[in-house]
Design brief:
The chain is mostly helical. It has four helices and no strands. Helix content is 52%, strand content 0%.
Length: 79
Amino acid sequence: MKTNSIIGAIAGDIVGSAYEFHPVKKMDFPFFTPQSTFTDDTVMTMANASWLCDDPDHTAKQLVSPPRLRRTIPHVALE
């Protein structure tokens, strides 16, 4: 798996988070604003990337409840 693809997906999600409910129709807009933040999609992207890279057997238990992510961002519900 290419790391740049994961970074791009996460960056795109964070950039888009500020415009999710207030979309812009122009190409010239700030990428990162004070309202930019990670979202549930960011967390799920990280969970899937972790599962694909760290669990060679791709077990359902690791996909549903990745322990490393739960320790890293404990306030986000992954179960």
